[in-house]
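Entry for adenosine-5'-triphosphate complex. Fields follow.
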Amino acid sequence: MTAGLRLRGVSLSRGAVTALRGIDLAVPRGELLVVLGPSGAGKSSLLRAIAGLDPVTAGTVAIGGRDVTAQRPGQRNVSMVFQNHSLLPHLTVADNIAFGDRIRGAGHRAAAARAAQAAATVGCQDLLARRPHQLSGGERQRVALARALVREPDVFLLDEPLANLDAELRLRMRTEIRAVHDRLGTTTVYVTHDQSEAMALGDRIAVLRDGRFEQVGTPDEVWRQPRTRHVAAFVGAPGMNLLPGDGPLTLPGGPATGVELGVRPEHVTLGGTPPDPLGEVERVEVLGEDALVHLTVGGHPLLARVPAAARPAPGDRVGIGVAAEHLHVFDTATGERVPQPTAAGRAG
Ligand SMILES: Nc1ncnc2c1ncn2[C@@H]1O[C@H](COP(=O)(O)OP(=O)(O)OP(=O)(O)O)[C@@H](O)[C@H]1O
């Protein structure tokens, strides 16, 4: 039976290193929450704190309304899947999946039946007789998921489970993980540093930076209304351009000091006429239908994503247009979003 998850004021330090700083988080029952952040942000530490693998230095963890802070990992009924799937090489797939059940004392037959069922859920029922070295990376991944599913955990914790797979397999597996989640409805916390994976998978995304959440919201909210400049720059492929408020791009009211202006590469239009500022094209990368145009404008780098058919050439000078509603404003000192009373405010 799945259960919701609640963290209150959770901090985690290891010696001099503080990995989590007062994390508050509520994951409703059945939600798939993606924790997104750069390397070292504290993502694995957060999962380890939830699983009970590392004791928290402050705060509480509750699962299904029950305070589990003092409980050992084995008492919490959470399943964790790590990036390196750590299958036991000498056991068959069936025995790997059944392993946890067996060490908890289940009979061979019951464990094998449950293993077969879990294998079918993730589509690896044809691999049961093989050993790990006879599996592809994606198949190993599926087996690791099946092994975690067998426990019917209250909460599923996935730590970059697709990190070692090639691009095509990552895409396929993330669709499968979402499908398995939709079928089982197990409360899930999924860690990744890949923002496109986060956008595609999450009911909500929690952006972690330096042991704190910068924003927790739906993929749409995080993309459209980033709460900080860090979220703006981290989410998106590529992330948001950030320029000084008194630089080449300006708000409808004119240049502004003490703020930064953000604009997504997708919202920069090229080929405008004065008063649009002129930018110089440095480099163009064609990505199928779209092209990524690297420009400099008033000495600042700027990226634009435009249809490949309409791309300029390196060395061209082009007018740079940004509609007011696509400008985001951030306080330079705090990095926080500044709400706008203008059209830009209505959009953001
Ligand atoms: N065993 C440890 N002892 C001391 N410090 C650690 C230990 N494990 C992690 N840290 C530190 O805690 C902080 C958070 O690490 P964590 O592994 O949680 O980050 P992460 O976001 O998962 O990073 P990555 O994406 O690189 O795995 C980092 O500063 C890291 O150096």
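NOTE: The longest strand covers residues 17-27.
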